[in-house]
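Can anyone check this?
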Amino acid sequence: QVQLVESGGGLVQPGGSLRLSCAASGSTDNIYAMAWYRQAPGKQRELVARITSGNNTNYADSVKGRFTISRDNAKNTLYLQMSNLKPEDTAVYFCNADFKSGPLNFGSWGQGTQVTVSS
């Protein structure tokens, strides 16, 4: 199993920056992709950014050029650097890890961290 703990959320003004972190523990060697999702009130959870074990990345169109996903394998930590934040970025941000256990694939979620963009 893989356990995930997010940190780094908070209140920031429009145009500001924030960095989220996600510490992974457990069977981290079996992780083949990690991602950030977000869920705003009354909306469905959506993919923000994803990174594979080969460091291939993809982003939601709404965050391209403003957010950067990265991972530090030595620290088993995933990051999301968010810049030029907008009020519409306000949401609970969740870390996700896709990992293998034998022939099967599983997903693990963190508890989420609140990001609020407001003046």
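Reply from J.R.: I decoded it. The chain has a mean pLDDT of 96.
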